[in-house]
Amino acid sequence: MAAGAAPPFTLLTFEECLQRAEGRKHVLLGNGFSRALRNDIFAYDALFLRADFSHLSPTARQAFTALNTTDFEVVMRALRLVARIIPLYRNDPDLVRILTEDADGLREVLVQAIAQNHPEGPFEVTDEQYGACRRFLANFDTTYTLNYDLLLYWALMHSEIDPAVRSDDGFRTPEDEEADYVTWEVENTDRQNIFYLHGALHVFDAENELKKYTWVRTGIRLIEQIRAALQADLYPLIVAEGQSQEKMAKILHSMYLSRGYRSFAKIGHNLFIYGMSFGENDQHWYDLIRKGQIRALYVSLYGDSDSDTNRQIRTRANQISVERAGRRPLEVHFYDAASAHVWG
After folding, report:
1. What pTM was computed for the model?
2. CB 169 within 8 A of CB 204
3. Does pLDDT of 4 surpass 60?
4. What is the distance in angstroms between the CA of the first residue and the CA of the last residue of the chain?
5. Where are the beta strands (DSSP E) in the chain?
6. Where are the domains of the chain?
7. Could you report the per-residue pLDDT of 79-108, keeping only the tens digit for each?
């Protein structure tokens, strides 16, 4: 293959990738995992249309139009960049403050939009859909997710549906056994194999402990508990900053999030990526793949494999392999996302 030439491209099925993968298998889930079930809720444009911008400056919503995007992280990143550049041109601390407040506020708007429009309960997903999801998850030793919503949690909790899926997110019954939540125990996470790398709607930082809301201990729908917490100005542990380095700063300042980061850095053998766009805002995870011990990377492509989006994914995934060359070779394969039948 000539220098700089693109490697030969073959689109595999998910099953073909499983057959090729020797040794332990891990999966990293992106937004496409949730969109595959409810695109009408979890697509960026759907969240944008349902978002309440009333508590931000009048121009915050217009920034999406100016940048021709519905991606909250793209706008947050742009606002922070402009806030850093403005002082070089003129002394306008009020404008810098507004830009910064809007960037911070968009994180809360995004969380509110997800929570307010989230499916009301696990009953809105069928047993057939849970079964398909559990068959998908059962292939992996470790599951990492960048999603905030409850869909993965619901699928794992439906243990009465075959197949069996080992799931341990590190949360345990607190010392106060009457509490209506469970807590994450840093000293007891050796068996943990489920990691919410960017936090989740049902995980709250309570200063001296990390709480996970559950239905079992309250009998109250989980999404209702989350909405009540938001109304009380309690926000879940969420990493929704616009730039990769900003996300890393938040991850490293959280014992729970940094535990997931260290776990991901150590994995070897095979990593399956499902539903990710390989955007710059998640560069910190791709850097770990480049520097890590993974031998084979399997990346999902949704729809036309030659679309602009999928060409970009292929280019960036192959670039990780190129940067790894000469040390620990990394095979990169691509599979049809639909063939995984994640929700049936």
Report:
1. 0.89
2. no
3. no
4. 39
5. 11-12, 25-29, 142-145, 171-172, 181-184, 194-196, 203-205, 210-213, 268-274, 293-301, 331-336
6. 11-39+123-340, 44-117
7. 999 999 999 999 999 999 999 999 888 988
